[in-house]
User: What shape does this take?
Amino acid sequence: MFYDPPAFRIMGDRAFLVELGDQISPSINEKVRELFLKLDRRPLEGVVELVPSYRSLMVVYDPLRTGLDRLREEILDLHQATDPSLVPEPKTLAVPVVYGSEFGPDLEWVADFHKISQEQVIRLHSGTTYRVYMIGFTPGYPYLGELPQDLATPRRETPRTAVPQGSVAIAQRQTGIYPAQSPGGWHILGWTPIKLFDANQWPPTPLEMGDLVKFFPIQKEEIICWA
Amino acid sequence: MGMIESLEILSPGPLTTVQDLGRYRFGRYGVPPSGALDSFSLRVANLLVGNPETEAGLEITLMGLKVRVLTDVVVALCGGDLQPHLNEKPFDMWCSQIVRKGDTLFLKAPRTGCRAYLAVGGGISLVPVLASKSTNLASRFGGYEGRALRKGDLLFSGAPDQHLQRAGKMFKPEGRPSYTGDWALRVLPGPQDQDFPAESIKLFLDSSYTVSSQSDRTGLRLTGPALHRKKDLGDSIISEGIVPGAIQVPGDAQPIILLVETVTGGYRKIATVISADLPLLGQVKPGERVRFLEVLMPEAMIALQESENHINMLK
Assistant: This one.
């Protein structure tokens, strides 16, 4: 359900969330993206940070330069204004994945769990176009949805202490890519040679919230083509 | 403008990092702000030595930092009293002083507070990464090679001789925060206070919580009375942006005050610490106790303006 007008949730004296709906859905997330892009392209006085997520936009401001009442009014005005020139089409990123074996140590388990073949798991995972609902948890980590229902899998009972950088993993109706080695409880289906975060590059990540991702299988001999 | 070797790390103590006022505008990529936990002390230290307040300095945790001075330079040390000594003699805090080539500055152990901030006239010469010199330890970028300082590391400063005339400035005692160890933190309710029953809100405001040793730059973990959410609500919420000072209550009902190394999260926040008290969060030590006082937005603004007025006296 959309919130109209949006709900403002106060987070201290220098931030608030503009909540645009009550669930995870592409249409609510697109509303968040529109508001985020408008505020990003037409910066408001005193706003220092914008963090878009599934269903809300966090606005951080300098309370010495602006205030909640003023920002609320300005944001509601922007929210109502329609200016498609501020909201470009999302891009689609094709992500090569080496599925299975040492690159995807949980592929076999996931196939057994769903009583399907490993090839079917790969076909299901790479046959869907995913939306980047948000980037968070660690720098460059894209929350991608939604995984086909036939592949929905509970998290691992025991999380790994170190999931390798580049791992492509699934949990419930989500899939994600680990931009750096980190602990994680998702099932690893494969590995991508694409670098998802580099603080010394601009932009530091190839993806933005609202972009689309499509995985495609490659053989390990082909890794070199993306290195 | 020449870059000159100014300090050599002889011993880093448990954790010394380069931090400025943080990294903004990259939250959209999942990049947290990092930066000085006690930004008030870093700003004062910078202004005392004639730097812009946004310059980087050293954030020194608890004890044990020992540095050798490699050229005559003006420095200021602000924040927690970690019993600083220059060549074995007690060294004054909250003022700018010249230290000479060959001197050794040593921080023994905390008397009050948890972190001290060392500013060097001429700053710390490092290339900003994503527009900041702050160290992001978890993702290993920014600051000094993306890591904590180690024995043998050399720090450079820009034209430190031009800052020497800044020596002898003092930050007046009435502007200095007191680090009592029994902390009363002012909060505004929200963003998810409505998800907690009245009993939990009352418990939160009436109890004191002990700071766990599991605390770090990501968050202060607290132990005390459990803050249960309303029945029929799940453990987590849909992930969303968070700011430092937000007080998150995960499944185990023990609150965590989030600090500067996180930018999104999926748990409810019962309240958020006001801006004027945020720098104090960098001075809270494990084992100490915190309480929460609810205030209204106008009080939060007055408190912030008061602390800014103290800083503005230095400008």
Chain B touches chain A through 44 residues (CB under 8 Å). Chain B has two domains: 3-175, 182-312. The mean pLDDT of chain B is 97.
